[in-house]
Design goal:
single chain, mainly alpha, 4 helices
């Protein structure tokens, strides 16, 4: 009996698949076609907010501190050169060598004041960059201080080589 019922369903299933082609077409219809053009909107250039007055004041103080440290370095450099020249053939640990080493330490101390200003400028630059602020003023002051520190480094390295 179950077999007979199953056989009765077979003709019904066959009726679903007619061969006369009344199926809908799978071709793309006109409404499915994409038309038109895409033109992106020109972005407006980013204008950073003006540098806050507190930062401008801080820049001026840091530039003045670095300039003062550089003047102090330049004032101490001739004495250090003389001390290193006088210790030219002195043995390690001798009085002449010790005087030259103390003079070099004085130059390094003067340089450290400029390096503190440089570190503060680096911090200002990072903060401004993270906040999307103006960097040109900070970079200009930082470049000036960097050149001064590089000059000081070269002087100290040259004198230290002469002392060895």
């Amino acid at each position: 009996m179950r077999c007979n019922r199953a056989l009765l369903l077979v003709p019904l299933l066959a009726a679903c698949a007619t061969a006369d082609g009344d199926y809908p077409s799978l071709a793309i219809r006109d409404a499915e076609r994409v038309g038109g053009t895409f033109e992106p909107v020109a972005p407006t250039p980013y204008m950073p907010p003006p540098t806050p007055a507190a930062v401008v004041d801080r820049l001026a103080r840091l530039a003045a501190d670095a300039a003062s440290a550089h003047r102090a370095f330049l004032a101490e450099a001739p004495a250090a050169r003389s001390a290193v020249a006088a210790a030219g053939g002195a043995a390690f640990g001798s009085d002449g060598w010790a005087r030259a080493s103390v003079a070099l330490a004085g130059l390094e101390s003067a340089r450290s004041q400029a390096m503190i200003a440089l570190a503060d400028l680096d911090r200002l630059m990072v903060d401004a960059a993270l906040q999307g602020g103006e960097l040109e003023r900070i970079v200009a002051v930082r470049d000036t201080v960097t050149r001064q520190v590089e000059e000081q480094n070269a002087t100290i390295e040259g004198l230290a080589r002469s002392l060895r």
